[in-house]
Amino acid sequence: MVQNTLTKQQYINIRLESKRRNCDIYPPYEYIVNAKKECYPDNLHVSETNCFIPIQDLFNHTTHRIFKISGVPKVIEMQMKKFEIIYKWGCDGSNGQSQYKVKLSTSTSDSDCSFYVLFSTITATWI
Fold this sequence. Notes:
alpha+beta; two-stranded antiparallel ribbon; 4 strands; 24% strand
């Protein structure tokens, strides 16, 4: 659906047609929407010029998603005493790059400069 840039109605039509041919291989559209919502952390604030999330919410979300990985709940059942995640982060910026002159609704925004904060999980271990 995402990779093929299907609209909601196109996806529903494809799903119904496949079901009509006794090939129920696509989940209902609502399942996809709900699964997609689970991929985003709480308190995510997005505008046309920036994105902000409190770091604790990002940690909580990442940990929650790791515990949803197959096999991890069995480790918890075996009386895990300690769970440790090591993260790394970094910054990168650029300016003077190719400018596409995107029209932004906020006139104070400068579209030719970028600053990024990158965040990644390195390892997760449990004892």
